[in-house]
Predict the 3D structure of the following.
Amino acid sequence: MSMIVKRKELSFWERLYIPALISGFKVTLSHFFRPNVTMQYPEEKWVLPEGYRGAPLLVKDQEERTKCVSCQLCEFVCPPKAIRITPPGPEANPECGNIEKEPEEFEIDMLRCIFCGYCQEVCPEEAIFLQQDYSLIGTQRDQMVWDKEKLLEEGGIHQDDIMKWKNK
Amino acid sequence: MAKAETKKNLESEPVVDTLTVTVDGKAVEVPKTMPDPMDGRPIPTTMIQACKLAGAEVPHFCYHPKLPVAGNCRMCLVEFGTLAMDKNRKPIVDAEGQPVVRKMPRPAIACATPVSPNMEIYTQSEGTVEMRRAVMEFLLINHPLDCPICDQAGECRLQEYSVDHGQGASRFVEQKVHKPKQVDLGPRIMLDDERCILCSRCIRFTRDIAGDDALGFVDRGSHSTLAHYPNRPFDNNYTLNTVDICPVGALTSKDFRFQMRVWFLKESSSICSGCATGCNITVGSRENRIYRFTPRENDAVNSSWMCDAGRLDYKWVGREDRLKNVQVRNNDGVLVPSDWSRALGEIADILREVPEDSVALIASARLSNEELYLLNLLAGKLGAVTDSIPRKGDKDALLVHADKNPNMNGAIATGISTKRPGSKLKLIAKGIKSGALKTLIVFGENLSACEMDDELLSTLEHLIVCDILPNETTASADYLLPGCSHLEKRGTFINAKGRVQKFMRAAEQPGDSRPEWEFLLELLKRIDGTNGVASIEGLFNQMAADVPALDGVSWGDLGETGVSIEI
């Protein structure tokens, strides 16, 4: 069923339009005197809130040891299957002591990653953290697959209070 | 396991003395005796076996149904009650005339305590649960908590029981005892003594099953460690079984060590093709790469074991030089890539025209029954002489068979080979030499091993070869068809004792290769237009109807462990 909406009759004052223009200019003018909210990205960057979930990155401990032991739990839990780990294989490294494993290769496809943080949550070694990087740039798809070297370089050192392997 | 054994026992011996025990309030009738795992003589049924029959799982580390009882892990401690007796050793009865059962003041290990009539076993009582928690705590005192590194994680009894029966946090604040790590026990085994919980399963296995008393505990007390006999490596042909039965990650396979986490492995039931024993195996694979074979229990064939040689015989499957393309020899005498439809069409044209008695067919006894059956049908149509090539090797008293073909009995049953495999090979070679045989079909064999070198093969008019890996014979082929290993297709083998067993597909075949039975069906269809079945199940059932030895067996009957036939 159709319905006819009755328009309100404009008064003479309203039909002049000039008062409306003036009130518009007033709003515009008032903004000249307000504080500046535009950020000059990328020269300027905002401060990220604590707990922000950026790119997952591998970390080393204070002794510069790669913390990841290649348990592959993150690979297992990763919902978009962005993580791929190559275990080291049977060749024993005589210098590693009790920490017998370290990944041969560790790749995260940042195009697949959904920054959910499951990998950080599941990691029994506190070796992977979602850090503050949100601007991940590459001009080719394969540049977006970050390998172990890149992940460790970006990840930095984790100030670990527990030092799980110190007394082993 | 024990259940199946008992069932079989009950079937073979109709009169079995039984007694009734009550497990967690559920009365269950159990046989008075069960066969000893080592020599089969009847020994009293134990509480752990009775609990298994009642469907109540008692956690255990050192107990293994196929090994002698040691009773050293204490994990299977349970509370139980027996008939109350008066001074004259007569059962006390209550007001209603029922015998009174009284709970024993102390628990007992279920794996080594025989059941008695009217016994009551409490697997979930407060005391039993508390004992398990305490045993778990003791076992974990010196156990390194390095599950993220340990290969056993995911299939570790200690890990599982810790979740089921242990506690969340450790109360242990002292230093753990340190023991040797990365101990080289033998060519295939690496030991981590810190993870060992001293259950002695490996010691009993190698002493009582493998017959090589090579392992033992040294340094009594807190520093007790597993060690091999000095100056003698642990290198018998069954060492890797100790890795399977190790409930923790102490014994590790050097081959599988740090290769892949077990939860990624897809498990497919298959058969070892190393010899005619046909051990049942589980193939662990991920993304088409095969990582390991583990034995699959089948008491009619391999119990729970397999030999190391068979277990490590998988690496060729993923070899780079696998045959991946159909190849046809062109007019210049060069093998060039072709495709299935063209090659099979040309082969069908050739085979339709060949005169009788001018064709020979040599089929490997590594092919499945279904393929050998189809090849025999083909040979029948062509009037071809057929044979298989025997492979002899070492044998032992446990599992290794001297016949290294997994399916020689299949070749005999389907008619490809006579009872004396290889007896017609000389005849075939002579026929080629004299020019009487003009066409040779070879499936999965290298003929240079049986005095048919490429010089002789080059005198043939047509040489049709199907194989998996390149060899001298594939190099001389006019038509080269890439086949599949048994891990990449389904089918059945008949082992040396006449056990028909099926194998399932564990990986994708490489390139353009196809399962032999698939393209053989197509070839037969092209030759005489008969329309056959298109599935392996249907093909098996058709074969069973045609082959007298397989009379009455259907694909559905085979199940996981196969069917025995008269051979």
